[in-house]
Protein: Exodeoxyribonuclease III
Amino acid sequence: MRIATFNVNGIRTRLPNLLAWLERERPDVACLQELKAGDEAFPADALRELGYEALWRGQRSWNGVAILSRHGPPVPVRRELPGDPADDHSRYLEAAIEGLVVACLYLPNGNPQPGPKFDYKLAWFERLIRHAHGLCRSTHPVLVCGDFNVVPTDALDIYDPRSWRKDALLQPESRACWERLLAQGWTDALRSLNPDAKVFTFWDYFRQHWQRDAGMRIDHLLLNPVLAPCLQAAGVDRWVRGEAHASDHAPTWVELDLSRLPGGR
Structure:
């Protein structure tokens, strides 16, 4: 099974890019972030024509997440991250698909920092850590993926950190939260299979960063200990970033052999 995560950066504006990627790569499950559209504007019919059923939580003008499946409709588990009933940002979905629990998230960017946006990022991250603890210890196979808005390291996850030192994505507090999350027992799929390689998933629109391959890795797929033995491959569909009118992210994916699950499939 192939599961991918993709920050589409506006599903209405970039629907042709999304459909072209889905038609060419055919992931079994695709988790989308930054829909930037209300629920009523979600292109469910266009996706269904390609064989995908969807679960989504939109938000007009910003945020918004969705889970697409070629194995029937995703079964909703959660439509928000627990811990703050007053938080109305559309940033988290959790669903069951073919015996897997799949969580799709769009973690707050946090800029500018310091300030209330960075405080919100860290508070949201704390809520994620609390909720993820149970997911990691679950006896079910669990995958948590999305745009985490965290660059884990200077050495391998960014082209050059010097001009990004004040950015929320590289702050020690953001990275400390990431490390605490991983310490629960999650496998960072892309890094696990590429331990010494620079791998990027995001290239912003400024200063020809895409043309110069001046990117960073902020889109991640995490596997709990039940699912981790199924990991076969992981990669980035870089070609998508090079298309006209592209998102500043490229889809990131894992290949899983579910016959390796306890009891087989």
Summary: The mean pLDDT is 97.
